[in-house]
Amino acid sequence: MKDAKAPAESETQKAKLVLSLRSGGVADPAVLNAIERTPRDLFVPDLFQERSWEETALPIACGQTISQPLIVGLMTQALSLDSRSRVLEIGTGSGYQTAVLARIARLVYSVERYRTLLGDAEDRFRKLGLLNVITRFADGFEGWPEQAPFDRILVTAAAPETPKALLAQLKPNGVLVAPVGRGPVQILKRYVGDGHSGYSVEELGDVRFVPLLPGVAREL
């Protein structure tokens, strides 16, 4: 049975987290509100429940991680979302980043290569009543061409190089945010369409993500 103080303690931890996000550069009120409204403890394994609201990445199933809240906030902010945005997310994972996106965007299309992760994430979306998330078990490298073009694309695993196949699914004036690089440390990049067939690239800083892998996973 949970301690009766737990809800109050959770609210205190949540408030501290939001303050740390502000100091870390997350200034968009919509993003801060979305993170505050999304119960991170729902997405964290039981073993790490006490660390749910800490500013740190945590392990989840299938050798993957739930990103630290600051990275979730900065990546979401970099997308420049609004209530009309159709977003493609590559890498559903625990579903935490997906849920934050869904609090702001009109529709979120999320692709995951691990069937186990996807099933668990879908259960969480149902619990939260997030009806604007559409999921797919598939190869993230391929995106979701049947639903393209997208206003925004977010990649939550490190692409080895510029994700050209995903950029091809972006609207001419859209935004794609992805960690790019082959080593343990990658560069978070923001690609912004020029309204025609080209785009500009902005480097947002160093990050650490699991690699984006081709195909779908074979799980035991």
Can you walk through the features of this model?
This protein has one domain: 3-Layer(aba) Sandwich (Rossmann fold). It contains six helices and nine strands. Helix 6 links the parallel strand 6 and strand 7. Helix 2 packs across helix 4.
Summarize the entry for a quick read.
This protein has 220 residues and is an alpha/beta fold.
Brief descriptors of the model:
220 residues, alpha/beta, Rossmann fold, seven-stranded mixed β-sheet, two-stranded antiparallel ribbon, 28% helix, globular
Blueprint (SSEs and pairs):
Layout: H1 6-23, H2 29-37, E1 58-59, E2 65-66, H3 69-78, E3 86-90, H4 96-102, E4 107-112, H5 115-128, E5 133-137, E6 150-155, H6 164-167, E7 170-180, E8 186-193, E9 199-207
Parallel strand pairs: 3-4, 3-6, 4-5, 6-7
Antiparallel strand pairs: 1-2, 7-8, 8-9
Radius of gyration: 17 Å
State the end-to-end CA separation.
33 Å
CATH level-two architecture: 3-Layer(aba) Sandwich
**Protein structure class:** alpha/beta
CATH class label: Alpha Beta
Runs in which pLDDT lies below 50 for 5 or more consecutive residues are 1-5
| Annotation field: number of helices | 6
Q: What proportion of the residues is helical, as a percent range?
A: 25-40%
Strand content: 15-25%
CATH fold type: Rossmann fold
Number of E-type strands: 9
The biggest beta sheet is recorded as: 7 strands, mixed
Shape verdict: globular
Q: Biggest sheet: strands side by side, in what order?
A: 5-4-3-6-7-8-9
Order of helices and strands: HHEEHEHEHEEHEEE
Give the CATH superfamily. Answer: Vaccinia Virus protein VP39
Give the count of structural domains: 1
